[in-house]
Structures are given as C-alpha cells and as structure tokens.
Design brief:
Elements: E1 5-6, H1 9-31, E2 36-42, H2 46-61, E3 65-71, H3 77-88, E4 95-98, H4 108-112, H5 126-134, H6 144-157, E5 165-169, H7 176-185, E6 189-193, H8 200-204, E7 209-212, E8 230-233, E9 237-243, E10 246-252, H9 257-260, E11 266-267, H10 274-293
Parallel strand pairs: 1-11, 2-3, 2-4, 5-6, 5-7, 7-8, 8-11
Antiparallel strand pairs: 9-10
Helix pairs in contact: 1-10, 2-10, 6-7, 6-10
Bound molecules: nicotinamide-adenine-dinucleotide.
Length: 298
Amino acid sequence: MAVAKRIDGKAKAAELAESITRDTAALLDEYGIKPGLAVIIIGEDPASQVYVRNKKRTAEACGFNSVQHTLAEDVSQADVLQLIDELNNDGAIHGILVQLPLPDHLDEQSITQAVAPSKDVDGFHFVNIGKLTAGHTADAFVPCTPAGCMLMIEDELGRDLSGKNAVIIGRSNIVGKPMAALLLQVNATVTITHSRTKDLPKVVAGADIIIAAVGRPNMVKADWVKPGAVIIDVGINRVEKIIDGEMKMGLTGDVDFDDVSTVAGAVTPVPGGVGPMTITMLMANTLRSARLAAGLEG
Ligand code: NAD
C-alpha cells in the first residue's frame, strides 16, 4: 500500500523563521530598522489568546519589536478605531493585526478596513485583496494562511502549475478566495467548492491539488482522492482523540490523514502543517513591510 509523504510544515516554518531572523538582524545592522508588529486583541476568547501568544513569541524570536494591545471585551468601536489610527501613524510599527473574531458589538469590516493597506500584514484590506485578485502581488500583502499553503505546494509541484487541477473546499475571504487567486496566478485550473456544491467527492476526485478549509473534522476521505494528489489541510478542529494512550482534547484537520495517506502523494498533518506556516508568513509580511517602508523593496 502506498504511503503519502507527510509534509512537515513545522520544519519548513522553522527554516523560514531562521532566514527571517537573519534578514531582520541585517536590516537593523545596515539601516537601523527593527520591524514592528502590533497585535490588537479584544476580549477573552481562549483560542485567540493562544494565537496571539504564539504570534508574539515568534515575532520576538525573529528579532521584531512586538507590541500587544489588549482591549476589554466591551471596548467601543471608536476606541478601537482611534488605536488603529495611532498605530497607522507610528513609524516604529510596520504591521498591524486585529485578532479575529471580534465581540458582536464591533463592526469587523470597518475595523479591518481602518488598518492602513501598507501595514495590513494580514492582507485583509480591500486594496490588498484587489491587488492580489488583479495579480499585482509585488507590493501587496497576501493573507498568511494561503501564502504558506502556496510555499508548501511549490515544494511538491514546483512554481508552475500549468495543467494541474486544484480544488479548494471552502470559500472564505481569509482562505478559500485568496487561495484561488494565488493558484490561478501560477496557472492552475481552479475550482472553488463550498457548502452548496453538489456531489463534492466527485468534484474533488479530479484534483491534483486539494485544499481543505472547511472546519469539519476528517471530512475528506481516501475515496475522494486521486492517486498521487497533493493535499493541504487548513482545517483546525478541536476533538477528543487518543493522545499518548489517553482520550484527550486535541486538534485534527478537515482531512482524514491516515485514510488519505493510502492514496495521496503528499499530505499536510494537523497539527504541524499549515498552522506553523501561517504564523511564519505573518513575520515574512511584517519584515517585507519594514523593507517597503524604507524603500528597500517594491
Ligand atoms: P469559514 O467558516 O469562514 O468558511 C468555511 C467554508 O467551508 C465556507 O465557505 C463553507 O461554504 C464551507 N463549507 C462548510 N460546510 C461544507 C461542506 N459540508 N462541504 C463543503 N464546504 C463546506 O472558515 P475559514 O475561516 O475559511 O476556516 C476554515 C477552517 O480552517 C477552520 O477549521 C479554521 O479554524 C481553519 N483555519 C486554519 C488556519 C491555519 O492557520 N491553519 C487559518 C485560518 C483558518
């Protein structure tokens, strides 16, 4: 029985982080510039706290100036917008990130759109989305998760995906849609599927590349998969699973890893696949923002 390659996102992310750390030290050495990343977290959502902690730790390890603004759950929209405005005008800050989801009383769209496009290292501003869609990625910020997925796909299949069929499961603004734009840019034939897609397994069966970004544990099975396909599992689901011989809460993806591994060519695990790459791409975007601001790129 064939066994797919396990794509080690953790190792790749660590390698990338090393090169970001080296480039950050050189930027400070040669130009006296230290990349600054400001993270705004609102409320007490436990998953968000973990993500923000990881981002801060990675930013510090890369040698960045890492600033965290923790705002109360009931903060007003005006106060959030004022903080973003201050950060937009702070020369020491090159990247601004507002951790999602936001409490219900806040308007997510006007908050994400208040971040200056030149500091929008999450790639959520309409200016950056427009540039990505138009194929102008030279000075755009690409959302971190799809950007990380692309690097892993490139490792498996190269930079030109002419003739390859890519099927994306999920059409979110954060993952599915930008993923489609990136795949199109390197000549893949792209299908975006979603909850209203008819006969999803049949559509997925034609894919040389599968990107699963749904949020349903172990949804993609071996009998959906074309032999040799490359599978990128973006999903993060909290489930009970056996860890060290005991039932505990743990993370699993949208892909049944063991099952698809009997058919696929390469698969990302969860955890240890897309997640670590996402954080590292945030650092890559922040370093790039600092270099762009200094006129060293673009
Ligand atoms: P979302 O909820 O915004 O979108 C989910 C998408 O899945 C929707 O487009 C929906 O149409 C589709 N969908 C739902 N049920 C479906 C079904 N039965 N068949 C086909 N499609 C279906 O989610 P998102 O923000 O894109 O995140 C998706 C998953 O990826 C979540 O588990 C999330 O936690 C994870 N995620 C991981 C990272 C990372 O860094 N690894 C980053 C972002 C999101």
